[in-house]
Amino acid sequence: MEIRPYQAADFDGLDALWREAFPNDPPRNRAAQSVPAKLALNDNLLFVAVEDDQVLGSIMAGYDGHRGWLYSVAVREDAKRRGIGTALVQKAEAALRALGCCKINLQVRSTNAAVIDFYKGLGFSVEDHVSMGRLL
Ligand SMILES: CC(C)(COP(=O)(O)OP(=O)(O)OC[C@H]1O[C@@H](n2cnc3c(N)ncnc32)[C@H](O)[C@@H]1OP(=O)(O)O)[C@@H](O)C(=O)NCCC(=O)NCCS
Protein backbone atom coordinates (compact mmCIF):
# COMPACT_ATOMS: atom_id res chain seq x y z
CA MET A 1 0.00 0.00 0.00
CA GLU A 2 1.33 3.39 -1.02
CA ILE A 3 0.06 6.86 -0.20
CA ARG A 4 0.79 9.36 -2.92
CA PRO A 5 -0.67 12.47 -4.56
CA TYR A 6 -3.76 11.87 -6.70
CA GLN A 7 -3.21 11.16 -10.39
CA ALA A 8 -5.74 11.35 -13.24
CA ALA A 9 -5.93 7.54 -13.50
CA ASP A 10 -7.24 7.42 -9.92
CA PHE A 11 -10.49 9.20 -10.80
CA ASP A 12 -12.81 6.18 -11.13
CA GLY A 13 -11.48 4.56 -7.97
CA LEU A 14 -11.77 7.79 -6.02
CA ASP A 15 -15.28 8.44 -7.30
CA ALA A 16 -16.36 4.92 -6.29
CA LEU A 17 -14.72 5.28 -2.88
CA TRP A 18 -16.48 8.56 -2.13
CA ARG A 19 -19.85 7.18 -3.31
CA GLU A 20 -19.39 4.25 -0.93
CA ALA A 21 -18.04 6.26 2.03
CA PHE A 22 -20.29 9.34 1.67
CA PRO A 23 -23.51 8.05 0.04
CA ASN A 24 -25.59 11.01 1.19
CA ASP A 25 -23.23 13.75 0.13
CA PRO A 26 -24.60 16.42 -2.22
CA PRO A 27 -23.44 16.62 -5.87
CA ARG A 28 -21.01 19.42 -5.06
CA ASN A 29 -18.95 16.92 -3.03
CA ARG A 30 -18.77 14.32 -5.81
CA ALA A 31 -15.43 13.67 -7.46
CA ALA A 32 -16.58 15.12 -10.80
CA GLN A 33 -16.95 18.52 -9.19
CA SER A 34 -14.50 18.62 -6.33
CA VAL A 35 -11.46 16.89 -7.87
CA PRO A 36 -11.03 19.33 -10.80
CA ALA A 37 -11.58 22.24 -8.41
CA LYS A 38 -8.89 20.91 -6.09
CA LEU A 39 -6.43 20.18 -8.91
CA ALA A 40 -6.89 23.74 -10.19
CA LEU A 41 -5.27 24.98 -6.98
CA ASN A 42 -2.15 22.94 -7.78
CA ASP A 43 -1.37 22.50 -4.09
CA ASN A 44 -0.73 18.73 -4.25
CA LEU A 45 -2.84 18.18 -1.13
CA LEU A 46 -5.15 15.47 -2.46
CA PHE A 47 -3.74 12.06 -1.56
CA VAL A 48 -4.82 8.51 -2.29
CA ALA A 49 -3.89 5.19 -0.71
CA VAL A 50 -3.26 2.74 -3.53
CA GLU A 51 -2.61 -1.00 -3.60
CA ASP A 52 -2.41 -3.06 -6.81
CA ASP A 53 -3.63 -0.01 -8.78
CA GLN A 54 -6.78 0.11 -6.62
CA VAL A 55 -7.74 3.25 -4.71
CA LEU A 56 -8.31 2.10 -1.13
CA GLY A 57 -8.38 5.46 0.61
CA SER A 58 -8.30 9.21 0.24
CA ILE A 59 -7.67 12.44 2.08
CA MET A 60 -7.92 16.03 0.94
CA ALA A 61 -6.06 18.71 2.89
CA GLY A 62 -6.25 22.45 2.52
CA TYR A 63 -4.08 25.27 3.83
CA ASP A 64 -5.12 28.90 3.61
CA GLY A 65 -2.06 30.38 5.33
CA HIS A 66 -3.77 30.36 8.71
CA ARG A 67 -5.29 26.94 9.35
CA GLY A 68 -5.07 23.55 7.77
CA TRP A 69 -8.23 21.57 7.08
CA LEU A 70 -8.87 17.90 6.40
CA TYR A 71 -11.67 16.65 4.15
CA SER A 72 -12.75 13.45 2.40
CA VAL A 73 -10.98 11.10 4.80
CA ALA A 74 -12.19 7.74 3.54
CA VAL A 75 -11.10 4.12 3.40
CA ARG A 76 -12.81 1.48 1.29
CA GLU A 77 -15.08 -0.76 3.33
CA ASP A 78 -13.04 -3.88 2.59
CA ALA A 79 -9.77 -2.18 3.62
CA LYS A 80 -10.81 -0.68 6.94
CA ARG A 81 -8.95 -1.27 10.21
CA ARG A 82 -5.64 -1.88 8.47
CA GLY A 83 -4.18 1.46 9.52
CA ILE A 84 -4.79 3.11 6.15
CA GLY A 85 -6.89 5.92 7.62
CA THR A 86 -4.17 6.63 10.15
CA ALA A 87 -1.49 6.67 7.48
CA LEU A 88 -3.57 9.05 5.33
CA VAL A 89 -4.05 11.54 8.17
CA GLN A 90 -0.35 11.38 9.03
CA LYS A 91 0.60 11.99 5.39
CA ALA A 92 -1.67 15.03 5.20
CA GLU A 93 -0.37 16.31 8.54
CA ALA A 94 3.22 16.07 7.32
CA ALA A 95 2.34 17.95 4.13
CA LEU A 96 0.55 20.69 6.09
CA ARG A 97 3.39 20.99 8.58
CA ALA A 98 5.86 21.38 5.73
CA LEU A 99 3.79 24.37 4.53
CA GLY A 100 4.11 26.06 7.93
CA CYS A 101 0.67 25.12 9.17
CA CYS A 102 0.44 25.18 12.98
CA LYS A 103 -3.14 23.91 13.53
CA ILE A 104 -5.41 21.51 11.73
CA ASN A 105 -9.21 21.57 11.90
CA LEU A 106 -11.75 19.11 10.65
CA GLN A 107 -15.48 18.61 10.87
CA VAL A 108 -17.38 15.44 11.70
CA ARG A 109 -21.09 15.25 10.99
CA SER A 110 -23.13 14.73 14.16
CA THR A 111 -24.60 11.62 12.51
CA ASN A 112 -21.07 10.19 12.16
CA ALA A 113 -19.97 10.42 15.80
CA ALA A 114 -18.34 6.96 15.68
CA VAL A 115 -15.32 8.34 13.83
CA ILE A 116 -14.58 10.76 16.66
CA ASP A 117 -12.65 7.96 18.38
CA PHE A 118 -10.58 7.47 15.22
CA TYR A 119 -9.53 11.15 15.29
CA LYS A 120 -9.01 11.16 19.06
CA GLY A 121 -6.57 8.30 18.60
CA LEU A 122 -4.64 10.55 16.23
CA GLY A 123 -4.36 13.37 18.77
CA PHE A 124 -7.39 15.46 17.76
CA SER A 125 -9.78 16.68 20.41
CA VAL A 126 -13.36 17.86 20.27
CA GLU A 127 -13.42 21.68 20.49
CA ASP A 128 -16.25 23.81 21.77
CA HIS A 129 -17.23 25.52 18.53
CA VAL A 130 -20.46 25.74 16.60
CA SER A 131 -19.78 24.96 12.96
CA MET A 132 -21.49 27.31 10.51
CA GLY A 133 -21.68 27.31 6.74
CA ARG A 134 -23.40 29.03 3.83
CA LEU A 135 -23.95 27.87 0.29
CA LEU A 136 -22.77 30.31 -2.36
C1 LIG B 1 -12.85 6.74 9.57
C2 LIG B 1 -12.05 5.88 8.60
C3 LIG B 1 -11.35 6.77 7.58
C4 LIG B 1 -11.00 5.08 9.39
O1 LIG B 1 -10.19 4.37 8.46
P1 LIG B 1 -9.39 3.03 8.87
O2 LIG B 1 -8.36 2.80 7.83
O3 LIG B 1 -10.35 1.94 9.14
O4 LIG B 1 -8.71 3.49 10.25
P2 LIG B 1 -7.48 2.83 10.98
O5 LIG B 1 -7.33 1.39 10.59
O6 LIG B 1 -6.28 3.69 10.77
O7 LIG B 1 -7.96 2.93 12.49
C5 LIG B 1 -7.09 3.33 13.53
C6 LIG B 1 -7.84 3.28 14.85
O8 LIG B 1 -8.91 4.24 14.84
C7 LIG B 1 -10.03 3.69 15.57
N1 LIG B 1 -11.17 3.56 14.67
C8 LIG B 1 -11.14 3.41 13.32
N2 LIG B 1 -12.38 3.36 12.82
C9 LIG B 1 -13.21 3.46 13.88
C10 LIG B 1 -14.61 3.47 14.02
N3 LIG B 1 -15.45 3.38 12.97
N4 LIG B 1 -15.13 3.60 15.25
C11 LIG B 1 -14.32 3.69 16.33
N5 LIG B 1 -12.98 3.69 16.27
C12 LIG B 1 -12.44 3.58 15.05
C13 LIG B 1 -9.57 2.36 16.13
O9 LIG B 1 -9.01 2.59 17.41
C14 LIG B 1 -8.48 1.96 15.15
O10 LIG B 1 -7.54 1.11 15.71
P3 LIG B 1 -7.82 -0.48 15.77
O11 LIG B 1 -8.25 -0.93 14.40
O12 LIG B 1 -6.48 -1.03 16.18
O13 LIG B 1 -8.88 -0.69 16.80
C15 LIG B 1 -12.99 4.85 7.89
O14 LIG B 1 -13.74 4.17 8.87
C16 LIG B 1 -13.95 5.47 6.89
O15 LIG B 1 -13.62 5.65 5.72
N6 LIG B 1 -15.20 5.78 7.32
C17 LIG B 1 -16.23 6.27 6.39
C18 LIG B 1 -15.96 7.68 5.93
C19 LIG B 1 -15.92 8.67 7.08
O16 LIG B 1 -16.80 8.69 7.92
N7 LIG B 1 -14.87 9.50 7.10
C20 LIG B 1 -14.67 10.52 8.12
C21 LIG B 1 -15.38 11.77 7.75
S1 LIG B 1 -15.16 13.02 9.01
Name the descriptors:
binds coenzyme A, 5 strands, Aminopeptidase, about 140 residues, five-stranded mixed β-sheet, alpha+beta, 4 helices
Describe this structure in words.
This protein is α+β, with helices and mostly antiparallel strands. The protein has one domain (2-121): Gcn5-related N-acetyltransferase (GNAT) (Aminopeptidase, 3-Layer(aba) Sandwich), CATH 3.40.630. The protein is built from four helices and five strands. The chain has helices at 11-21, 31-41, 84-98, 116-121, and strands spanning 2-5, 46-51, 54-63, 68-75, 104-106. The protein has a five-stranded mixed beta sheet, with helices on both faces. The protein is globular, with a radius of gyration of 14 Å. Bound molecules: coenzyme A (COA). Coenzyme A is lined by residues 21, 73-75, 80-86, 108, 112, 114-115, 117-118, 121.
Q: Strand-residue fraction?
A: 15-25%
Cross-sheet strand order for the largest sheet: 1-2-3-4-5
What global shape is seen? globular
Order of helices and strands: EHHEEEHEH
Mean pLDDT: 97
Under the CATH scheme, the architecture is: 3-Layer(aba) Sandwich
Q: Provide the CATH topology.
A: Aminopeptidase
SS summary, helix count: 4
Low-confidence stretches: none
Q: Rg to the nearest angstrom?
A: 14 Å
- Helical proportion, percent range: 25-40%
Structural class: alpha+beta
According to DSSP, the number of beta strands is: 5
Bound molecules: coenzyme A
The CATH superfamily label reads Gcn5-related N-acetyltransferase (GNAT)
Number of domains: 1
Question: Quick one: CATH class?
Answer: Alpha Beta
